[in-house]
């Protein structure tokens, strides 16, 4: 009962946002590290993907990811509605939240969610990738990033993710009672964006082929 009461409070919901956000951030970093294996060649990244399937962590990870995403989105909507009710009129004199990242958190989340759906259909289910072959991660990624519209969509999604992390990581730490400079969130967001974008850049430039 006390747990439910805490969840219903604004503080509790912010804590849920923080915990699920940290969980999603850890997944994003782990996924990025896996993607970077492409620079070691087909055997490395294909072997890594096969190893994840062999040790049986793929489906538990997917379930945990789905749970975190679901809770994160539901609580975000609830907090937005609560904030709107608490402030029925717009900001005085047209003032907005301090950072561009803060102003775009909602739409950035939508962009990321839509891209994740496409990404799953493309590289997991294979239905959106005409060149997709199950288990051939290296070839599937290279085939994808030879298409300009895939590179464009991927870049937009990664930049939206970077803005989301830049604002969200710092907010999550604050909600969990951890004091950290805002610059740390910027460094983390920049490093993640650079890591993810290095893969399509390498394909476009012919470094990976």
From TrEMBL:
Species whose genome carries this gene: Umezawaea tangerina
Family matches, as NCBIfam families: sdhC_b558_fam
Transmembrane segments: 15-39, 59-80, 100-121, 147-165, 186-208
UniProt xrefs under InterPro entries: Cytochrome_b-558, SQR/QFR_C/D
Species lineage: Bacteria, Bacillati, Actinomycetota, Actinomycetes, Pseudonocardiales
Keywords tagged on the record: Membrane, Transmembrane, Transmembrane helix
Stored SUPFAM superfamilies: Fumarate reductase respiratory complex transmembrane subunits (SSF81343)
Keyword rRNA processing: no
Keyword Protease: no
GO CC terms of this entry: membrane
Database matches in CDD domains: SQR_TypeB_2_TM
Name of the protein this chain belongs to: Succinate dehydrogenase / fumarate reductase cytochrome b subunit
């Amino acid at each position: 009962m006390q747990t439910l009461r805490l969840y219903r409070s604004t503080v509790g919901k912010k804590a849920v946002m923080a915990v699920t956000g940290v969980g999603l951030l850890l997944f994003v970093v782990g996924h990025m590290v896996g993607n970077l294996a492409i620079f070691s060649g087909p055997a490395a990244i294909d072997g890594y993907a096969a190893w994840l399937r062999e040790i049986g962590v793929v489906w538990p990870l997917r379930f945990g990811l789905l749970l975190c995403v679901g809770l994160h989105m539901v609580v975000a909507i609830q907090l937005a509605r609560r904030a709107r009710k608490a402030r029925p009129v717009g900001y005085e004199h047209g003032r907005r939240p301090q950072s561009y990242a803060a102003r775009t958190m909602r739409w950035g989340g939508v962009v990321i969610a839509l891209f994740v759906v496409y990404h799953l259909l493309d590289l997991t289910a294979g239905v959106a990738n005409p060149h997709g072959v199950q288990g051939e991660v290296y070839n599937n990624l290279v085939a994808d990033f030879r298409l300009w519209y895939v590179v464009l969509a991927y870049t937009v999604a990664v930049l939206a993710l970077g803005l989301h992390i830049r604002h969200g990581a710092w907010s999550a730490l604050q909600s969990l009672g951890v004091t950290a400079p805002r610059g740390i969130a910027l460094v983390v967001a920049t490093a993640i964006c650079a890591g993810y974008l290095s893969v399509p850049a390498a394909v476009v430039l012919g470094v990976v082929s």
